[in-house]
Design brief:
alpha/beta, Rossmann fold, Arc Repressor Mutant, subunit A, four-stranded antiparallel sheet
């Protein structure tokens, strides 16, 4: 039985053959192509549960493909594959809407583990007992993953929603970095930690219209959502 349909884009023929073979042996349906333009044609013509994108692609690189996909779908998980491992590249990929970054060479076990984690999360957002949170002048609908301010609606990604949920559930309380990383990212490695900082910056940007709302950084400990009464 097929688990999920994945768009896989990679211009290294040897690596792509091995990776496809392993993913298909684990039950995934794989649509494969070797350049960014073909990737967008496939994406626009089909439904996918997850995308795996090499960064260095002909015609249209992986970052461009991810940005185009994010314009159409804020939820689909995107995993970047790359031989480049600089912090700047990783942060750039995250800001474009990527969910994770795997540096080549990688183990197929690592890739499959990340796929399983993302598919589990994207299949169903944790439904909390409180489905709507009031955050100062904002309204956050957990179920719809929407943040509303003065009738302006911001569609949140899966991970943004999960992170904001944790802050709302622990309002005025310090949430430790390790807890955020394990519950939202599934690991506490360096890259996940840098990713957390990027996502917190995004949430701060979304919440900046109300000066009473702040996500405080507690140095070397974690974060705390503060909503001032006046």
């Amino acid at each position: 039985m097929t688990k999920a349909k994945i768009l896989y884009v990679e211009d290294d023929q040897t690596l792509s053959f091995v990776t496809r073979d392993n993913l298909e042996s684990h039950g995934y349906a794989i649509d494969f192509c070797e350049d960014g333009e073909q990737a967008m044609k496939l994406y626009n013509a089909n439904h996918y549960d997850l995308c795996i994108l090499d960064v260095m692609l002909p015609k249209m690189d992986g970052f461009e493909v991810a940005a185009s996909i994010r314009e159409k779908d804020v939820d689909i998980p995107i995993i970047f594959l790359t031989a480049k491992s600089t912090k700047e590249d990783k942060i750039h990929g995250l800001r474009l809407g990527g969910d994770d970054y795997i540096t080549k060479p990688f183990s197929i076990e690592e890739l499959i583990l990340k796929i399983e984690v993302f598919l589990k999360r994207s299949g169903q957002l944790r439904l909390e007992s409180i489905e709507v949170h009031n955050i100062g002048e904002y309204t956050f609908s957990v179920k719809n993953q929407r943040l509303t301010f003065n009738n302006k609606i911001k569609e949140l990604t899966q991970r943004e929603s999960e992170l904001l949920c944790m802050f709302c559930e622990n309002r005025d309380t310090i949430v430790k970095r390790d807890d955020l990383l394990m519950k939202v990212w599934g690991d506490d490695h360096y890259f996940a930690s840098r990713s957390l900082d990027v996502f917190v910056s995004r949430l701060r940007k979304y919440l900046r219209e109300d000066p009473k709302v702040k996500i405080e950084n507690i140095h070397n400990v974690g974060y705390r959502l503060i909503i001032q009464s006046k």
